[in-house]
Design goal:
heterodimer; A: 307 residues; mainly alpha; two-stranded antiparallel ribbon; 10 helices; globular; B: 346 residues; two-stranded antiparallel sheet; 11 helices; 2 strands; 1% strand
Chain lengths: 307, 346
């Protein structure tokens, strides 16, 4: 009896410890949000959001950084999402479960997901800028650097490599959720495999694909490290330098304000405001993805006939 | 007519099949390309005869707003004729003696350059280990609570909070860690530097807890419900079921969680860049500033000269990180994943 009691106490204490850990994590993240809102909202004015930076970023605003963040993420999505969806289609629709190629691809997708962002940044520099870009410039006979230098274009492509695995894995799981019998019915009616994918699989997976896209964007919006070598700059006076120009980024702006501000005390409110803005952008994307996903799961649960 | 129509349908079908296959092959090719290009930029370190400085020195400088369009290519190409061992600024860049790679001094751009990797590797391992020691127990406990103890109504809300936490940009985590944890530690312990190894590892732990927890939740969820029921039907108490049925079944999944979190810890850059103090010291004192391999790459590539020995040694660091992360991920994928898919096998 004493032993059972002892066991029960042990079980209860494990449960209590687990609850404490869970509470701790939730409290920490809520605390981080609260701190940023509290300290960040002083500097968060319309003039600051809509202005361009002046006097080493200590005055003026950060609109170019917002534009740069948004544009790099959008350009990244334009590259990563079509390729990601096609890759997922291969894994779900075309490859056989025992195929060696499919196995190799699957392993490389997971491996690519684990490559540190800083290495992907180095690759972007070595491949996109120093190989593709410079060779293009040499071939065209440009007298000035056009593609062989850090730019928005290369930064977006580098980010796309980073988010590709996230997108593929998320799209793959939505494609698998489309009932197999729907595909079989379509094929039995004489549709080709592509017609089945286009008319049956993709329309039904569209919501899940959007969720995957938003998740990839949230991931990309928060990444700064791969951009360091491929196009991000500290400050710019124009709003927009073009796709082959360099750009400002909210995350890099925060990093620079924290480490290299000319007047650290004055920079503090700006740091919190920048951090808040960046967090709001990535959290909003994340919440949107979750809400979409939840609505989708409900509608799938309602509409799916007995399979 | 009909035949022609169906022929084009079939041709399109085949074309799309090839398109999907090549898109899937892209991930593999990218991995191979990363490997090849990082090696390609690291190799000249071994082959100093081929060291040629040819690129604009400002090409990598993210910190200064420099307009590139004004740099004519001719003036850049002219630098190719500079005597070996000098750069466009006319500074002399000495080759890095390869023997110094095993040393304890990291100063690759000094007048007698040394690239001792020891303090960087030490800092990486030390910070990652401290972070894992904090993150693994907390992450696994959080997963345990979510899957085994939490009331059903709280479970979804909790998982949502959790994925929100995972989406915290690491630069924000690093910043908050430096300003709050760093400050707190120095008032409590009276240490000199806000940014130090312990501060960085606390920030890193915060960043990898979601990774550990999400993967552990998946591991616990994968334990078949029938096994739990069978155990309870045999008279085991919930604690015994947890200890002797759930944990052993979830073990491969938990191992995968730990390994992938370690990989994330080795490669994480922004948090450490902000919170570790970035001094390349090999010290046992957790309150001393430290520096990791990844943060060195991020820190120094800003003002390194392209094609200088310093530039190539940074790619060597990148190669090391790439190999570590690839080893970890492919081990998980090839060795652990199959046993997850099979479920329990003794």
């Amino acid at each position: 009896m004493a032993e059972r009691r002892h066991l029960h106490i042990k079980y209860r204490s494990v449960a209590a410890l687990a609850a404490v850990c869970a509470l701790l994590v939730v409290a920490l993240s809520a605390g981080a949000f609260a701190l940023l809102f509290w300290k960040g909202n002083q500097a968060l004015t319309a003039a600051w959001i809509l202005g361009t930076p002046q006097s080493s970023n200590m005055e003026g605003g950060i609109l170019p950084a917002i534009l740069g963040t948004v544009a790099s993420v959008l350009l990244m999505s334009a590259c990563a999402i079509p390729v990601g969806v096609l890759s997922a289609l291969y894994l779900v629709e075309y490859s056989s479960p025992t195929s060696l190629f499919a196995h190799i691809f699957r392993v490389s997708i997971s491996t690519l997901a684990g490559v540190p962002p800083v290495v992907i940044g180095l690759f972007g520099l070595a491949f996109f800028i120093r190989t593709v870009g410079q060779n293009f410039d040499a071939a065209v006979g440009n007298t000035s650097f056009f593609l062989g230098r850090p730019s928005m274009l290369w930064a977006a492509l580098t980010l796309a490599i980073l988010t590709l695995p996230t997108v593929i894995l998320a799209v793959e799981s939505t494609l698998r959720a489309v009932p197999q019998s729907w595909r079989e019915s379509s094929l039995a009616l004489g549709a080709t495999q592509w017609e089945t994918i286009w008319r049956i699989v993709l329309p039904n997976a569209l919501g899940g694909i959007s969720t995957a896209a938003i998740l990839g964007m949230a991931r990309a919006a928060g990444e700064v490290v791969p951009l360091l070598f491929v196009g991000v700059i500290y400050s710019q006076s124009e709003l927009w330098n073009g796709f082959t120009g360099e750009f400002m980024h909210l995350g890099y702006h925060l990093y620079v304000l924290t480490t290299q501000a000319p007047n650290p005390a004055e920079a503090v409110p700006l740091q919190y405001a920048t951090a808040l803005l960046l967090l709001v952008v990535s959290a909003a994307l994340n919440i949107a993805a979750q809400l979409l996903n939840r609505r989708l799961q409900k509608s799938i649960a309602q509409n799916t006939p007995g399979v | 007519m009909i035949e022609e129509h169906s022929r084009s349908r079939l041709a399109f079908n085949t074309a799309m099949r090839y398109a999907a296959t090549s898109a899937a092959a892209l991930s593999f090719s990218l991995l191979a390309l990363i490997f090849v290009y990082v090696i390609k930029e690291a190799v000249p370190l071994w082959n100093p005869a081929k060291v040629q400085l040819q690129s604009p020195t400002d090409g990598m400088s993210a910190a200064e707003p420099i307009v590139f369009n004004t740099t004519p290519l001719d003036s850049i190409l002219a630098t190719r004729t500079l005597p070996a061992g000098t750069n466009v600024r006319g500074e002399i860049t000495e080759a890095i003696p390869l023997g110094s790679l095993l040393g304890t001094e990291w100063d690759p751009s000094g007048s007698t350059p040394k690239a001792g990797l020891l303090p960087l590797v030490w800092g990486t391992a030390y910070i990652a280990l401290m972070a894992l020691l904090m993150a693994i127990p907390v992450g696994v406990m959080v997963a345990l609570w979510t899957t085994e103890f939490a009331p059903r109504s709280l479970r979804n809300a909790f998982q949502a909070t959790f994925s929100l936490l995972a989406s915290f940009p690491s630069v924000v985590v690093g910043f908050l860690c430096l300003t709050t944890v760093g400050h707190l530690l120095s008032t409590m312990l009276g240490n000199q530097y806000h940014a130090n190894g312990l501060t960085a590892s606390i920030g890193l732990a915060f960043a990898i807890i979601p990774t550990v927890a999400t993967l552990s939740i998946r591991a616990f969820m994968a334990v078949p419900q029938e096994l739990r029921e069978a155990s309870i039907a045999l008279g085991a108490r919930p604690g015994q079921t947890l200890r002797w049925v759930v944990l052993p079944c979830a073990r491969p999944g938990l191992l995968a969680a730990v390994l992938l979190a370690a990989g994330r810890g080795l490669g994480e850059t922004m948090i450490i860049l902000l919170a570790s103090g970035n001094a390349p010291l090999a010290t046992l004192n957790p309150l001393a500033p430290m520096r990791t391999v990844a943060s060195t790459i991020a820190l120094e590539s800003g003002d390194v000269l392209w094609d200088s020995p310093h530039f190539h040694v940074l790619f060597l660091l990148g190669l090391g990180l790439f190999l570590c992360s690839t080893l970890i991920s492919s081990f998980v994928e090839v060795k652990i994943r199959p046993s997850l898919a099979r479920g329990i096998d003794g």
